[in-house]
Amino acid sequence: MSYxxxxxxxxxxxxxxxxxxxxxxxxxxxxxxxxxxxxxKYYATPANGRNNVSYLVGNIRHDExxxxxxxxxxxxxxxxxxxxxxxxxxxxxNN
Length: 95
Fold this sequence. Notes:
By secondary structure, the chain is an all-alpha fold. The chain is built from 6 helices and no strands.
């Protein structure tokens, strides 16, 4: 599982419209700049989430108690979610 080859393209396509560095600078409600890997890793780490589920995974799966992302109500495909979850489960490495 590679962040650069597998995960980053999904994030760019599905998340950067709200969670890019440019959007982060002008938004008062945006709490995550996904272009900042340290911030992304924090949100991807299960211990920082709820019930040992990372905020990133809980949000994109639309789990109860998490903020549904993408915020517009759409949902990532099962394949995209599985790819991101596998990356998180492997330690969310910047590779």
